[in-house]
């Protein structure tokens, strides 16, 4: 990895719509990524190792629970700040953003929104500081896009619940201390349970051979007659809507995060195009390369506008699931297209780890699949505008 000389790009002066606090938060996150992520991330990805050294820094920049109130250890920030932090982190690597998304929106959020006061006090401060790391178990081997079909289940055994089943494709699972797990009770109703490492019958094998998100640890959650204390049930909400509401928050973060990956690819390609000489001229002087770069900044600007407006709606408590789906889908697709075009601008150099583009491109193949696939988000928009669900 070359020295990280990234600069933000704000073609439509959107900074004018941000507060001073937003800009300070962005600067802190950007400085941290340049100092502690960029120098190590390429090697971590090449070795397919999760860099545990980033946990402390993620906590310090407020990436664990940015919008969780300070009384529970969160940063107490608004939704635009949350988005900005995700954007800056994913500018470094989507896997690092994944770690933060899961911890904040898929572990801290359900405990904050649906947990008891005791659960909030026990888990949230430690999750915010990174002393404890969490994972979120919704997807199963036979139930990905259709989580409502899940077979993981728990039975009431009087003084505890007995949990059985398996979750697949779980970010952070190999090292998590706690997992928020979604399972059906004897009546088939979905509930959230907090499962803690060390409980008998709970294991978290790692999934290997990924070509994408290599610096993020992914694995399984396996439950074989796990005795879960009754006080670990999330009592505030049940039904599929409970995990789906957590996804709303994580998908919103991804809508911003993907812009970060796109900005990094654009910034790298623009810089390279101005420096690389072919036929006696910088390649940036050729119309074909300018077309690619001009289209990139246009698409990034549109995505920035969408994310910022969505952030305003979220701050007002008005953002709908369908609006969030549209932004996640659009912005991730936009980022993948930009990564592919940017890679071409770098020619052969674009496939090496000397530049971040190929890593972003491969990472984004996961981002376009998790938190709802590209197709599922299209169907959510379709359902919203027609009133007809085309999932089944
Ligand atoms: P459907 O019948 O539409 O809904 C079931 C119930 O849920 C309610 N609901 C929501 N509630 C709150 N927030 C939302 N976003 C909600 N969406 C739906 C709905 O009103 C209903 O309530 P009720 O009271 O009537 O029962 O459900 P369906 O089974 O038809 O499925 C709809 C569909 C396909 C959209 C949904 O299943 C879906 O979104 N599937 C995609 C699955 C997904 O996104 N999985 C992500 C797993 S986690 C992950 O990938 C983490 S990656 C993390 C990282 O590393 O960054
Ligand atoms: P499937 O659901 O089998 O889909 C396969 C294809 O069929 C897709 O193209 C899909 O769009 C299409 N399809 C499915 N249904 C329909 C339909 N009704 N109409 C049209 N097309 C359809 N999950 C978690 O719970 N927690 C995590 O932390 C987590 N982290 C992940 C990390 C990584 C790196 C990855 C790759 C995944 C992660 N996931 C996680 C799982 C992720 O959410 C699922 O992979 C995703 O929801 C899709 O499920 P699936 O892979 O089973 O694909």
TrEMBL record:
<keyword id="KW-0560">Oxidoreductase</keyword>
<dbReference type="InterPro" id="IPR037069">
    <property type="entry name" value="AcylCoA_DH/ox_N_sf"/>
</dbReference>
<comment type="pathway">
    <text>Amino-acid metabolism; tryptophan metabolism.</text>
</comment>
<dbReference type="InterPro" id="IPR036250">
    <property type="entry name" value="AcylCo_DH-like_C"/>
</dbReference>
<dbReference type="GO" id="GO:0000062">
    <property type="term" value="F:fatty-acyl-CoA binding"/>
</dbReference>
<dbReference type="Pfam" id="PF02771">
    <property type="entry name" value="Acyl-CoA_dh_N"/>
</dbReference>
<dbReference type="InterPro" id="IPR046373">
    <property type="entry name" value="Acyl-CoA_Oxase/DH_mid-dom_sf"/>
</dbReference>
<protein>
    <recommendedName>
        <fullName>glutaryl-CoA dehydrogenase (ETF)</fullName>
        <ecNumber>1.3.8.6</ecNumber>
    </recommendedName>
</protein>
<dbReference type="GO" id="GO:0050660">
    <property type="term" value="F:flavin adenine dinucleotide binding"/>
</dbReference>
<dbReference type="Pfam" id="PF00441">
    <property type="entry name" value="Acyl-CoA_dh_1"/>
</dbReference>
<comment type="pathway">
    <text>Amino-acid metabolism; lysine degradation.</text>
</comment>
<dbReference type="InterPro" id="IPR006091">
    <property type="entry name" value="Acyl-CoA_Oxase/DH_mid-dom"/>
</dbReference>
<dbReference type="InterPro" id="IPR009100">
    <property type="entry name" value="AcylCoA_DH/oxidase_NM_dom_sf"/>
</dbReference>
<dbReference type="Pfam" id="PF02770">
    <property type="entry name" value="Acyl-CoA_dh_M"/>
</dbReference>
<dbReference type="GO" id="GO:0004361">
    <property type="term" value="F:glutaryl-CoA dehydrogenase activity"/>
</dbReference>
<keyword id="KW-0274">FAD</keyword>
<keyword id="KW-0285">Flavoprotein</keyword>
<feature type="domain" description="Acyl-CoA dehydrogenase/oxidase N-terminal">
    <location>
        <begin position="19"/>
        <end position="131"/>
    </location>
</feature>
<feature type="domain" description="Acyl-CoA dehydrogenase/oxidase C-terminal">
    <location>
        <begin position="238"/>
        <end position="383"/>
    </location>
</feature>
<dbReference type="InterPro" id="IPR009075">
    <property type="entry name" value="AcylCo_DH/oxidase_C"/>
</dbReference>
<keyword id="KW-0809">Transit peptide</keyword>
<dbReference type="GO" id="GO:0046949">
    <property type="term" value="P:fatty-acyl-CoA biosynthetic process"/>
</dbReference>
<dbReference type="InterPro" id="IPR013786">
    <property type="entry name" value="AcylCoA_DH/ox_N"/>
</dbReference>
<comment type="similarity">
    <text>Belongs to the acyl-CoA dehydrogenase family.</text>
</comment>
<feature type="domain" description="Acyl-CoA oxidase/dehydrogenase middle">
    <location>
        <begin position="135"/>
        <end position="226"/>
    </location>
</feature>
<dbReference type="InterPro" id="IPR006089">
    <property type="entry name" value="Acyl-CoA_DH_CS"/>
</dbReference>
<dbReference type="InterPro" id="IPR052033">
    <property type="entry name" value="Glutaryl-CoA_DH_mitochondrial"/>
</dbReference>
<dbReference type="GO" id="GO:0033539">
    <property type="term" value="P:fatty acid beta-oxidation using acyl-CoA dehydrogenase"/>
</dbReference>
């Amino acid at each position: 990895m070359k020295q990280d000389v990234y600069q933000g790009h704000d073609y439509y002066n959107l900074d004018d719509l941000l507060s001073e606090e937003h800009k300070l938060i962005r600067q802190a996150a950007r400085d941290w990524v340049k100092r502690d992520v960029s120098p190590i991330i390429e090697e971590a990805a090449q070795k397919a190792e999760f860099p545990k050294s980033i946990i402390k820094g993620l906590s310090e920049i407020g990436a664990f629970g940015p919008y969780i109130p300070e009384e529970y250890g969160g940063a107490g920030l608004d939704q635009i700040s949350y988005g900005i932090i995700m954007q800056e982190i994913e500018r470094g690597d989507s896997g690092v953003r994944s770690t933060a998304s899961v911890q904040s929106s898929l572990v801290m959020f359900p405990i904050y929104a649906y947990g008891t006061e005791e659960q909030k006090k026990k888990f949230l401060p430690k999750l915010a500081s990174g002393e404890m790391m969490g994972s979120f178990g919704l997807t199963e081997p036979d139930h990905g896009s259709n989580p409502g079909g899940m077979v993981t289940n728990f039975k009431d055994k009087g003084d505890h619940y007995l949990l059985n089943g398996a979750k697949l494709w779980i970010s952070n699972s190999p090292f998590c201390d706690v997992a928020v797990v979604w399972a059906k009770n004897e009546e088939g109703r979905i509930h959230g349970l907090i499962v803690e490492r060390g409980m008998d019958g709970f294991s978290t094998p790692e999934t290997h051979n990924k070509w994408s998100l290599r610096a993020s640890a992914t694995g399984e959650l396996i439950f074989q007659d796990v005795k879960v204390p009754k006080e670990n049930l999330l009592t505030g909400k049940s039904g599929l809507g409970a995990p789906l509401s957590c996804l709303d928050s994580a998908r919103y973060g991804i809508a911003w995060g993907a812009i970060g990956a796109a900005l990094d690819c654009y910034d790298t390609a623009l810089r390279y195009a101005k420096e690389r000489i072919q036929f006696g001229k910088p390649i940036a002087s050729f119309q074909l390369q300018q077309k690619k770069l001009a289209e990139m900044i246009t698409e990034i600007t549109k995505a920035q506008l969408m994310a910022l407006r969505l952030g305003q709606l979220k701050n007002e408590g008005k953002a709908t699931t369908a609006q969030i789906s549209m932004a996640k889908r659009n912005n991730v697709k936009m980022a993948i297209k930009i990564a592919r075009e940017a890679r071409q601008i770098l020619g052969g150099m674009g496939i090496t780890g000397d530049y971040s583009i190929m890593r972003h491109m491969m990472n984004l193949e996961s981002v376009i699949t998790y938190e709802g696939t590209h197709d599922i988000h299209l169907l959510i928009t379709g359902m919203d505008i027609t009133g007809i669900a085309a999932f089944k």
